[in-house]
């Protein structure tokens, strides 16, 4: 990680109110919120490390562990559950060889289960990074994942 | 009662990327009317008279909220659009934002005029990041046309994104998040109209609520209040999902029956129960399918999840409570501990290890959570458990361990 990258981010968010937006950029840039970066962020905003860490660990889109290049978030809420999201989750697990909460060894994919993503009319659904994939079947999974290889 | 398009009037009709198509549909006429012919008090009065109530689930009278914020003193005032649609089974705000972002911008500018705010925020959930460009484009096009400028002062709108937290749809948690903090709810009072964002008077309205503003200003409060029931005026947009042939977004006049929505429009068959209001909503057994949809009966934010006869009630309750246990912000103990304890008990039932005493404990726990939780999350989390204990008692009893 380069200090320049961090400086660029912190220089954009000088106010305390920008912390969530700032951490979003750190998450995107580094793939997680590294401890030393959180310390530097705290210094740049003049707040305690605890406050930064507390905010960083509150939101599900932030992670203190390094995540894969592509983050798969499969919706596990009731409408997707009714539409058999279980078979979708199984297909992804089989294809990537990882369980929810894990990252592939090559660092390409992280698999997460998430709460409602607002695509219940086309359940079951998942997101890969910022893109929504809906009306999923286990058969569609390998084709979708191959686009990210 | 029929379907009627008020909120969804432009959806599928205009090009959401092109302001000129919105202008061709009377776009910004309401804002021009409000600025040129109406005082802020008159605008607020019109909304009050219309009977419009908040569509995010709480149903607070919108005009009253605006009046309180307008009268409150503060150096700055803020208008916030709550686009943190996170309730399980809700996707109507996504549908609206995808198809008609301009009405939202117009409505926020009208609200700004009514309460005397210079700044508005749209708080967009992280999961809807793909809508950010569309929304910012609508704001930019509007600003370029000069529609956000008024008599020397201006009103501007900024989009703030969430970072994945259901609780940030709760108004005070949302403000904490905009202020760059953990999305923990605040103690109330003070309420947002007197002390909201950065301690200043703030109006915070749901996407769908705001969508009603331009037509009310253009066509008048009387036109609006003719639709609906005694306490619920206008229309409601529903998100229908689950065991139906035609899931999707439907707009109905308030007071329409649940049967009309799920059977006639969404084509549900063999229905066992319907959850109205999402995870935090009420469970309506099929025997009560003729229940009218309105604030005085059952409504919430309009998420309607349909379950057919093959569904296991306890299984659904476990999933629902797991959701709340994960999404509780953790600030108050009735919610933080209550959701966990409730989940533990429900899991016992799902394994066939429940007891009669457990059923009583759940009722007591639910009561404590409803009475003492700090915000709507903890207060509403036990709703579906309470309802299923009442309507599907036999399914709980079937999961009681022999001899206990």
**Mean pLDDT over the residues of chain A:** 95
Q: Rg of chain A to the nearest angstrom?
A: 17 Å
Content-based structural category of chain A: alpha+beta
List how many beta strands of chain A DSSP finds.
4
Provide structural commentary.
- The complex is a heterodimer of chains A (about 150) and B (about 400).
- Chain A is built from seven helices and four strands.
- Chain A starts with a helix and ends with a helix.
- With about 150 residues, chain A is α+β, with helices and mostly antiparallel strands.
- The model of chain A has no long low-confidence stretch (mean pLDDT about 95).
- In chain A, strands 2-1-3-4 form a four-stranded mixed β-sheet, covered by helices on one side.
- Chain A has helices at about 5-10, 20-30, 35-45, 50-55, 80, 85-95, 140-145, and strands at about 70-75, 110-115, 125-130, 130-135.
- Helix content of chain B is about 45%, strand content about 15%.
- Chain B has helices at about 20-25, 30-35, 40-50, 60-70, 90-100, 100-115, 130-145, 170-180, 205-210, 215-220, 220-225, 260-265, 315-325, 335-350, 355-370, 375-380, 385-390, 395; strands at about 80-85, 120-125, 150, 155, 155-160, 200-205, 235-240, 250-255, 270-275, 280-285, 305-310.
- In chain B, helix 13 runs antiparallel to helix 14 and helix 15 (about 355-370) packs antiparallel against helix 17.
- The longest helix of chain B has 18 residues, at about 335-350.
- Chain B is globular, with a radius of gyration of 22 Å.
- Chain B starts with 18 loop residues before the first helix and ends in a 7-residue tail after the last helix.
- The interface of A and B includes residues 55, 61, 118 and 119 of A.
């Amino acid at each position: 990680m380069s200090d320049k990258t961090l400086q660029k981010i912190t220089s954009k968010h000088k106010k305390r109110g920008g912390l969530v937006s700032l951490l979003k950029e750190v998450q995107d840039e580094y793939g997680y919120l590294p401890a030393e970066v959180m310390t530097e962020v705290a210094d740049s905003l003049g707040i305690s490390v605890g406050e930064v860490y507390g905010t960083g660990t509150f939101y599900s889109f932030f992670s203190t562990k390094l995540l894969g290049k592509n983050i798969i978030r499969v919706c596990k809420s009731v409408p997707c559950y009714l539409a058999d999201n279980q078979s979708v989750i199984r297909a992804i697990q089989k294809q990537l060889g990882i369980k929810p909460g894990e990252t592939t060894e090559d660092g390409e994919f992280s698999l997460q289960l998430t709460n409602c993503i607002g695509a219940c009319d086309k359940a079951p659904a998942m997101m890969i990074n910022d893109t929504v994939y809906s009306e999923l079947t286990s058969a569609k999974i390998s084709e979708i994942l191959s686009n990210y290889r | 009662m029929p379907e009627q398009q008020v909120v969804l009037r432009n959806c599928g009709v205009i090009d959401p990327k092109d302001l000129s198509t919105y202008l061709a549909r009377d776009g910004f006429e309401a804002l021009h009317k409000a600025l040129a012919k109406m005082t802020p008090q008159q605008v607020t009065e019109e909304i009050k008279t219309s009977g419009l109530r908040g569509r995010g689930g709480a149903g607070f009278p919108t005009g009253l909220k605006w009046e309180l914020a307008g009268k409150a003193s503060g150096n700055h005032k803020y208008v916030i659009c709550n686009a943190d649609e996170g309730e399980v089974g809700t996707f109507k705000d996504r549908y609206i934002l995808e198809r008609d972002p301009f009405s939202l911008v117009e409505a926020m500018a009208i609200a700004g005029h009514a309460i005397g705010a210079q700044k508005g925020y749209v708080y967009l959930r992280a999961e809807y990041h793909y809508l950010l460009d569309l929304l910012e484009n609508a704001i930019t096009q509007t600003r370029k046309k000069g529609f956000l400028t008024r008599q020397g002062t201006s009103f501007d709108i900024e989009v703030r994104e969430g970072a994945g937290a259901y609780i940030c749809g709760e108004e005070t948690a949302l403000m904490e998040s905009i202020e760059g903090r953990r999305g923990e709810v605040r103690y109330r009072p003070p309420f947002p109209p007197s002390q909201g964002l950065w301690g200043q008077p703030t109006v915070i309205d749901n996407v769908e609520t705001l969508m009603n503003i331009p037509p009310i200003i253009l066509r008048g409060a009387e036109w609006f209040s003719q639709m609906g029931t005694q306490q619920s005026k206008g229309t409601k947009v529903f998100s229908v999902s689950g065991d139906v042939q035609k899931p999707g977004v439907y707009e109905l006049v308030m007071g329409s029956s649940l049967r009309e929505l799920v059977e006639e429009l969404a084509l549900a068959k063999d229905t066992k129960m319907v959850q109205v209001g999402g995870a935090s909503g009420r469970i309506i057994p099929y025997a009560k399918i003729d229940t009218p949809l309105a604030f005085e009966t059952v409504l919430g934010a309009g998420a309607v999840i349909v379950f057919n006869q093959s569904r296991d009630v306890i299984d659904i309750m476990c999933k629902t409570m797991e959701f709340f246990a994960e999404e509780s912000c953790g600030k108050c103990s009735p919610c933080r501990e209550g959701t966990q304890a409730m989940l533990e008990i429900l899991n016992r039932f799902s394994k066939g290890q429940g007891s009669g005493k457990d059923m009583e404990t759940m009722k007591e726990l639910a009561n404590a959570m409803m009475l003492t939780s700090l915000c709507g999350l903890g207060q509403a989390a036990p709703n579906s458990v309470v309802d299923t204990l009442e309507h599907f008692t036999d399914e709980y009893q079937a999961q009681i361990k022999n001899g206990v």
